[in-house]
Amino acid sequence: MTSNYRYIIFYKPYGVLSQFTQETPKHSTLKDYILVPDVYPVGRLDWDSEGLLLLTNNGQLQHRLANPQFGHKRTYWVQVERIPDAAAIKKLQTGVKIQDYRTRPAEVRLLLEEPTIGDRNPPIRFRKNVPTAWLEMTLTEGKNRQVRRMTAAVGFPTLRLIRVSIAHLKLDGLQLGEWRDLSCSEIEFLHNLPKTGGIANKAKTSALF
């Protein structure tokens, strides 16, 4: 494996663009956190989402992971307005229509306890008479703002979205705004991700950070 390649995971905060170029002073960019030359995100995470972002300077691996044939799993913790019922969860699991596209089957469950995570800055909107709940959603695709559109389609808008894992990679030990290089075993695993289904990965309901 070429030693000049870098592989990094970053715990992206809310309000940070998944790019190094500044388009507007409204948002921070990766340049404000990662002083490593010539690495680029594999995929993206919306500016208003938080969590795990993978970066590398290995263009071949970037292209490979972007190929839908690999379908590697991405797990999110999603805070939604109100408490989804069994019917809504079933719809998310089997697929919902967003715009002109029907989502693939997904692993979705209601978390019985709120995940142990820090507060968001700025905090989510709070309405005294409207409860919230947390879902754990594992997808094998990544359409634009897909998770938010899925929960909205079943009547439970997303308030907060945190990606906690990509395939076998997790945020273990990282604090908000921190990054680290991948271990040799993590890199090897990335290079050996199979096609058709990726790696089974279940985020725990205990603290990841």
TrEMBL record:
UniProt domain Pseudouridine synthase RsuA/RluA-like: residue ranges: 7-153
Residue stretches spanning the membrane: none
GO MF terms held by the record: catalytic activity, acting on RNA; pseudouridine synthase activity; RNA binding
Name of the protein described by the UniProt record: Pseudouridine synthase
Family to which the UniProt record says this protein belongs: Belongs to the pseudouridine synthase RsuA family.
EC numbers, comma separated: 5.4.99.-
SUPFAM superfamilies reported for this sequence: Pseudouridine synthase
Pfam families (UniProt xref): PseudoU_synth_2
Keywords, alphabetical: Isomerase
One GO term of the biological process aspect: rRNA processing
Enzyme superclass (EC): isomerase
Domain of life: Bacteria
